[in-house]
Amino acid sequence: GAGVSQTPSNKVTEKGKYVELRCDPISGHTALYWYRQSLGQGPEFLIYFQGTGAADDSGLPNDRFFAVRPEGSVSTLKIQRTERGDSAVYLCASSLYSAASGANVLTFGAGSRLTVL
Amino acid sequence: GDSVTQMEGPVTLSEEAFLTINCTYTATGYPSLFWYVQYPGEGLQLLLKATKADDKGSNKGFEATYRKETTSFHLEKGSVQVSDSAVYFCALSGGYRDDKIIFGKGTRLHILP
Which one of A21, A106, B1, B7 counts the least CB within 10 Å of its CB? Predict the structure, then answer.
């Protein structure tokens, strides 16, 4: 697609429930990133994929968080047994490294706002 | 680990004022540096970047110079407009292909007409 698409845009759930957030990156972008942004804070890195594999998952806060990208395109972030502290905007970004510019530039989606009651 | 520190906001200026938002970084190796911007109701977008020491990134009248000696990447604009009101994030990547990008906490900028 033309941009990074994230669904749902808003999700309200109850403490202890399971949640899935979906990201559809820009076609052809090999790398896909998940970030979490709390109110008044900068994006906090969670995980990134290069193709189908997780290249770096050091930002996942605990084992309740898991992400997959089975075919190297769409990714799903899965949160088990949600807690109130998981409430945040979850951002997805994709990138295509530019050898010409020598930099890895991310294109972000609009985010999925998760509220855990 | 790598990190970015930027000045806390909010920063409030009058239209046509000079803007500086300070950013310093800590990194091993030779990171690439970025400024991203988040306008009200919109997603994060790249404003400018620099990939090596002494490079100057520029866009929409904003500039930032990669200073290795002071580990800084301060954002400047000579004459701000009301439409520049947004949250600005300084960020770095490790300089390796497709490495993760680390963001600062953001600086909210208000421009008064």
Answer: B1
